[in-house]
Structure prediction request, 151 residues.
Amino acid sequence: MRVGVLSDTHIHLAEEIPLEVVKAFSRVDLILHAGDFVGLQVLEGLKQLGEVKAVYGNVDSMKLRGLLPEKELLVAGGKKIGITHGWGGPEGIERRVRGLFNDVDIIIYGHSHRAKIERIGDVLFFNPGPGYQSFGILTIEEDVKGEIVKL
Prediction:
């Protein structure tokens, strides 16, 4: 299973989604967005590419906050995935977001604008970085492989 991962897109219109993201996400099984879309049309544009699971971020509108949860827990490819935006400074963000989820294999988060893939204990932490600079691809099989794609 291939999963496209975005966060911190900070754009208003679907047409502003980078073409590289559109091309890559048209070939994934699931799209995950860890918040700070800014515009509702960005969410709608991603839904045109495939199934989307998403949370709101700290700069998202009240409209998006009404449509999306603060955190999401799902199973994809047999792996438990937690999604949240994150908060506070970049130092210690993994510890903070880890506290939101009990039994997960992967935590998708954003907020820090720092792309990062790190395994801490038995959890893979995956921050795709800001959507105007990078996005992520997760390949979920028996093992999970994460990749950051720079724009």
